[in-house]
Amino acid sequence: MPTQRLSGVLAPVVTPFKRDLSPDRERYVRHCKWLLANGCRGLAVFGTNSEANSLSVEERMVLLETLIQEGVPAAALMPGTGCCALSDSVRLTSHAVALGCSGVLMLPPFYYKGVSDEGLYRNFAEVIERVGDARLRLYLYHIPPVSQVPITLALIERLLKKYPGTVAGVKDSSGDWNNTQAMLDAFAKSGFDVFAGSEVFLLDNMRNGGKGCITATGNINPGAINEVFERWQAPDADALQKGITATRNVMQKYPMMAALKAVIAHFGRDPDWATVRPPLVELTPAQSKSLTTELEARSFDMPGLVATSATATA
Amino acid sequence: MPTQRLSGVLAPVVTPFKRDLSPDRERYVRHCKWLLANGCRGLAVFGTNSEANSLSVEERMVLLETLIQEGVPAAALMPGTGCCALSDSVRLTSHAVALGCSGVLMLPPFYYKGVSDEGLYRNFAEVIERVGDARLRLYLYHIPPVSQVPITLALIERLLKKYPGTVAGVKDSSGDWNNTQAMLDAFAKSGFDVFAGSEVFLLDNMRNGGKGCITATGNINPGAINEVFERWQAPDADALQKGITATRNVMQKYPMMAALKAVIAHFGRDPDWATVRPPLVELTPAQSKSLTTELEARSFDMPGLVATSATATA
Questions:
Q1: Neighbouring-strand partners of residue A202
Q2: Which of B17, B21, B22, B87 is the mutation pick for testing A, counting most A CBs within 10 A?
Q3: Residues 6+ apart with CB under 8 A from B200
Q4: Is B182 exposed, middle or buried (0-12, 13-18, 19+ CB in 10 A)?
Q5: Cβ neighbours of residue A124 under 8 Å, at least 6 residues apart?
Q6: How far is B144 from chain A (nearest CA, A)?
């Protein structure tokens, strides 16, 4: 049982696929280890950027077991376990807790739109009750641009009151700093850990009582982002923040998941990494070239990525 | 292998749950048989109104097998098999085809928003190729108000060209008659079967070359809706259409899925039917009373529902 809660930079780890679109466990383990060795304090596997909802429940369970078998510490893991089906969310969450994961990052059920806070409360409460394990640390995943189902302040308040300690925090991917600020103001002092959903807000989040960020670009730029986390009280913090925001802005010109994979494929000299599952599509060669050229012009690099890739591809 | 394609009124069958929220197979079989005996020509099990996305893949498979074992003809079934995960869609579709179902009604993967037609094409094409069975009849499910991911005319055209015969039709739940009309104009003559997503458009759909409707309220009002289907060329068709539209309008004052279950609970004298899975919530007693009172004032009834319920509840 992990005694310390996760903080710092977490990557929603991109999931590599073989050419037949099956999950590539070898590349997956390698990338997770690279991330932990290069600035990530934790891995929010099976997030939006992981194409997690393009994976079956069984595929996710196998990948999680593989990571732990291959030596990735469970204490560093915060898998996404929120599904449309209550039964799936319970199954994945129980599995993650049994494996010793530090926490789980839970989407609301996202098929039905315009559902009530009462319905969402019942969903999260049912999961917590059915998992029935004091080790569970549940982080709510607020990402209305994608899920279209928000986690409101009123819902958080009600869940925190009923399940203090278990409801451990939130990832705010609203892209709206005012919302993150409101979550910090309302709940940070009661031990509710707020993670920004993008490193663009990392310094602001740290200065207001937040715990770090869970960010797509943590997959490719974990060192520089971690530097902002480590040095948020240092005199050069604003300059460091400016640097990681600039890199983020380059990435955001492209569809994020395909872009992340294109960058790993390029800097790792491992073209197969570019594969995505439908309904996503990989970047065009022109997009990929334009993106990596712009990053190289900024002296962007992913140190150590080629060697590990080459070893395992051989 | 069914030789004839489905047409007429299909219900996206509501899924009953026990008090512990597990699927209630007995009530499910009973309701399906009542629907087929009272006007439905087919059952679009596992649709939006079935809370299908609140069920795991395994729960859906067990329910489908149960129906067939209990004597519901596979030729009458058009299960929903479109999931966010390609692997789930392939598994459910293969299962439905192997069981002899007439067709499958397929949502696009609905987690990621703003995906390209190319990505959606790849999704459907991969499912068709991986299922690899000439018996497959795939109906596309266009429901942008919920899925937020549309099935465009250009996507249909591309799929029809590559997979004629397999891509068999569409359910248009856009709520936009202009869109249904456009689908009819573009594809109905080439053997592409257009079902309206609501009986409000049934007569218009039939008059323009459509094949029927797949409608929520088919769960409670199948006889009257089927009468419009059967008599769409009769002199009183417009009057009949007016009647079913009026009933639909009563239902639409309430959250549809909870309202359907409240109506079945009331007219079947079987209160447990009201149960829904989170994130949905059942109607309040006041809502339920108001709804059923208004229906009774319109002489609405569900003949034969009480007897079957009483038998099986005993």
A1: none
A2: B87
A3: B244, B245, B248
A4: middle
A5: A106, A108, A138, A140, A159, A167
A6: 11
Cα B53 from Cα B84, distance rounded (Å): 10
- B21's CB contacts (< 8 A; 6+ apart) are A86, A126, B275, B277
- Tell me how close the Cα of B209 comes to any Cα of chain A, in angstroms: 31
CB atoms within 10 A of CB B307: 12
Interface ipTM:
0.95
Does A309 score more than 80 pLDDT? no
Q: Around B238, how many Cα atoms within 13 Å sit in the side-chain half-sphere?
A: 1
Number of Cβ pairs closer than 8 Å across A and B? 111
Q: Flag if B281 and A118 touch (Cβ within 8 Å).
A: yes
Distance CA B185, CA B208 (A): 8
- Which amino acid, one-letter code, is at B275? T
| Residues A55-93 pLDDT 10s | 999 999 999 999 999 999 999 999 999 999 999 999 999
The SS3 of residue B169 is strand
Q: Which residue in B20, B106, B112, B152 has the most chain A C-beta atoms within 10 A of its own C-beta, making it the best mutation to test that interface?
A: B112
Alpha-carbon distance of A237 to B247, in angstroms, equals 63
Taking the C-alpha atoms of residue A150 and residue A146, their distance in angstroms, rounded to an integer, is: 10
Mutate to test the interface with B, among A111, A130, A151, A275 (most CBs of B within 10 A): A111
| Number of neighbours of residue B36 by Cβ within 10 angstroms | 17
What is this structure's pTM? 0.96
Instruction: For residue A284, give the DSSP letter.
Output: P
- Name the interface residues of A facing B (CB cutoff 8 Å): 21, 48, 53-57, 59, 84-88, 91, 108-113, 115-116, 118-120, 122-123, 126, 145-149, 277-281
Beta strands of chain B (E only): which ranges? 8-11, 42-43, 104-106, 138-142, 167-172, 193-196, 212-214
Residues B138/B124, Cβ–Cβ less than 8 Å? yes
Q: Which of B172, B169, B217, B205 is closest to B35 using CA atoms?
A: B217
CB contact under 8 A, B278 and A59: no
- Cis peptide bond upstream of A279, omega within 30: yes
Distance CA A79, CA A178 (A): 26
Mean pLDDT of chain B: 96
What burial class does residue A272 get, using C-beta atoms within 10 Å of its C-beta: 0-12 exposed, 13-18 middle, 19+ buried?
middle
Q: Between chains, do A55 and B87 touch, taking CB under 8 Å as contact?
A: yes
Interval A109-140: pLDDT, tens: 999 999 999 999 999 999 999 999 999 999 99
Q: Where are the alpha helices (DSSP H) in chain A?
A: 25-37, 57-69, 86-98, 117-131, 144-147, 153-162, 177-187, 202-207, 222-230, 237-251, 256-267, 285-297, 305-313
Q: Is-contact A276 A282, C-beta < 8 A?
A: yes
What is the Cβ-side half-sphere exposure of residue B38, based on CA atoms within 13 angstroms? 21
For the segment B2-27, the average pLDDT, to the nearest whole number, is: 94
User: Quick one: which H or E segment has residue B251?
Assistant: helix B237-251
Give SS3 for B121: helix
